[in-house]
Amino acid sequence: MDILIVALKRDELTLASFRPKRGGVSFLAAERHPLAGDEQELTRLLEAAARVPGERRVVLALPASQLFMRELELPLTDRAKVRELLPLELKGETALDTDDLSFDALQLATGRFLAVWGRSKEIQEKIELLKGAGLEPEAVTASLYHWEKIAPAAGTVAVTDGDALAAYRDAKPIYLRALRPGSGDTELERTVAALEVAHGVKVERTISFARTSPERGVLAQARPALAEAFADDAHAAHDLAGAYAVAASLADGSLLNLRRGALAYTAGTQKLYRKLRLTAGLAAAVILLVFAESGVRFALAKRDLSSLDKSIQVIYKDVFPGRKKPVDEVAEVRAEIRKLEGAKVSSNTLKFFKELAIAKGDGVTGFYETELDGAEVRLKGEARSFQAANDFKGRAAALVDGAEVTDIKSRPDGSVTFSFRGKLKGVAQ
């Protein structure tokens, strides 16, 4: 996501866009507008900037002169913990109650911390101004606190934009100060001399990005990443070095941010929650579909099992018509098959029953008693008529020797019961 730096001064508005990349940011575009104190004109310019398509991370950069600083000696090294401690540490030492101030901290090369704060009411007013124009900033800072991004990695140097001064030793801050408006070279030289005495250092050179300073040679003195970000455009790098430093700090997560506590940025979190709600909704829909599919599969499987049970019951009744209350049809059929397999005539028994079922035809409605004793076969069954029983005898003669049908008894409905016996063909006695 691109980064938009809104540098707001009393008499000037600068809008600079950067794109994060590996190891830093690259410059996209910028525009500068003079301000005459007309808030409507400022709002119009901000609204025009907000109409640019695409999502951007917005940072409001204020002049360092509108903020306050103090060096503190604290027995901590964690910046987050120092930030929480500052309101208590400075309570009673600021013009306003610390509850009306917004704090952050910056660690110096000496191990001390630079406490930075601003008036919450003034910061809130500027946030609301940008928010109303559609450019709500996620952070509020000043470029002064990020000039280590443009200071050379080695040596003791001072960096200035004409409105503030920062001194670095090997790119670590040792001194930061906002200059009085309209300060010239004399004030700058006096400030450099004072910091040399106070910190016992020798400033090797001063890198100036002030409007009145020459652009030539600036890129050669600054960190190489600055030239790379602006594709060696010395003019753009000279004018927008501060905005670049803020964007680079936001990209790597080291930004000094005064939008904390009651002023904390929540729009990004709300967007994330909305995305998470959508994701959670989709996940819930997928889970419901999975459960629905599982339910359908279970219902189909249950229906198939029920159909299979009914088929087994029908087969069981055909095999054992005399058994009225089966306990486990499948187990009973398997047990009978095992008995048959263990008999002497096991090689022919199942084949015989299959052929017998074919031989009975439609005239014989079923057998309710079957007995095999070696080669002897004895059956009791039901037929539709006397003739049907005799016809079965003729068909069964192909399966058994000495087929006989006896004990034929008539029923009121015309059907008969009969007994059948014979000897299996091809089975030794």
Order of helices and strands: EEEHEEHEEHEEEEHEHHHHHHEEHEE
Give the rounded overall mean pLDDT.
87
Total domains, how many? 3
Main sheet record: 5 strands, mixed
Number of helices: 11
User: What do we call the CATH topology of the largest domain?
Assistant: Nucleotidyltransferase, domain 5
Over all CA atoms, what is the radius of gyration?
49 Å
Protein name: Type II secretion system protein GspL
GO biological process, one term: protein secretion by the type II secretion system
InterPro entries: ATPase_NBD, T2SS_protein-GspL
GO cellular component, one term: type II protein secretion system complex
Structure description:
InterPro entries: ATPase_NBD, T2SS_protein-GspL. This is Type II secretion system protein GspL. It comes from Geomonas limicola. The protein has helices at 39-50, 79-89, 120-132, 185-199, 218-221, 224-229, 234-252, 267-319, 329-342, 346-360, 386-396; strands at 2-8, 12-21, 24-34, 56-61, 68-72, 101-107, 113-119, 139-141, 156-160, 164-169, 172-178, 205-208, 364-373, 376-383, 400-410, 416-424. Strands 3-2-1-4-8 form a five-stranded mixed beta sheet. A four-stranded mixed beta sheet has the order 11-10-9-12, with helices on one face. A four-stranded antiparallel beta sheet has the order 13-14-16-15, with helices on one face. The protein is α+β, with helices and mostly antiparallel strands.
